[in-house]
Amino acid sequence: MVDIVPLSSYPSYIDLLPSIQTCNITNLPENYFLKYYLYHALTWPQLSFVAVVRPKNGYKNGGGASGNGAGIAGDVSGQYPKVVGYVLAKMEEDPADGKPHGHITSLSVMRTHRRLGIAERLMRMSQRAMAESHRAHYVSLHVRVSNIAALRLYRDTLGFEVEKIESKYYADGEDAYAMHLKLENMWMDWKAVEKRDRAEAKKNKKEGEDGADAEEEDADEGEAVGDLGKAEQNGEKMVNVKIGRALGVGDLVEKSDVQS
Ligand code: ACO
């Protein structure tokens, strides 16, 4: 079973990087120093993804990766799984056209795990993250003109277009297709999302209060436990405090009730 998760799911990127580097060296002539992988992971943690083989006996501590990576960070401490695919991606740091856009630095899937849709999934997840986290206008990449498998993936499966051919782009003199795919259609309207979340929270709160009123008569909070629990009986009153996303930082800073 293979899980595809953000590289940032792991407690420490560093432990996974050698395995990613192995996946790169095994499959591609374009190789990088370990620190270049780390630079990607630290600078754009949302954009790079790994395909990892789920340990035979599952992840420790129950819960486990459910295929979408949820809860994986807590589960894999001390047991780093084998990487069978990765996409290393970034935002272009100084875009010539002035448009923020993503770039696929490298993509690779081990031979043992090809034609299972892993590369397609890695690419789609990275593209979505570029659009949602960075409002990338498009994603770009280079691919060897002789790389039929990758070209099919980019052009036919994902919808990339060839922008131009870059002559002798690679160290061995081979030409590259410079390709790109527009991402504006994946941008999120975060204001609308936040508005919807606030309305939902308000509705839930109201329902909770109505439910609490109905249950009030039967309320049984049990006996006070420990010193803190007994505080109210010792003359200290419990106070209601405001909590929630609408509060500013000032509201969340603890204040002393004692007037000086
Ligand atoms: N021949 C023809 N089409 C292919 C092939 C192939 N060997 N492999 C993938 N495709 C196309 C197909 O359209 C496929 O859809 P289908 O299986 O429904 O027909 C589609 O791509 C999706 O395939 P995936 O299963 O997602 O691709 P996979 O996980 O096998 O990985 C990859 C493809 C990454 C190109 C893999 O072959 C590989 O690692 N190759 C060596 C490294 C490499 O070339 N990386 C890309 C370099 S360019 C760069 O890094 C920016």
For this entry, give a set of tags.
single chain, 260 residues, alpha+beta, Aminopeptidase, 7-stranded mixed β-sheet, 35% helix, 18% strand, elongated, binds acetyl coenzyme *A
How would you describe this structure to a colleague?
The structure is a single chain. This protein has 260 residues and is of the alpha+beta class. The protein has one domain: Gcn5-related N-acetyltransferase (GNAT) (Aminopeptidase, 3-Layer(aba) Sandwich). It is built from 8 helices and 7 strands, in the order E-H-H-E-H-E-E-H-E-H-E-E-H-H-H. It has helices at 13-27, 34-43, 72-75, 118-134, 148-157, 190-215, 226-229, 249-252; strands at residues 2-6, 49-53, 83-91, 102-109, 138-144, 161-166, 176-182. The chain has a 7-stranded mixed β-sheet with strand order 1-2-3-4-5-7-6, with helices on both faces. Helix 4 links the parallel strand 4 and strand 5. It is elongated, with a radius of gyration of 25 Å. The protein starts with a strand and ends in an 8-residue tail after the last helix. The relative contact order is 0.10. Residues 62-77 and 244-260 have low confidence and may be disordered. It binds acetyl coenzyme *A. Acetyl coenzyme *A is lined by residues 27-28, 104, 106-109, 114-120, 141, 143, 147-150, 152-153, 156-157. Residues 27-28, 104, 106-109, 114-120, 141, 143, 147-150, 152-153, 156-157 line the site of acetyl coenzyme *A.
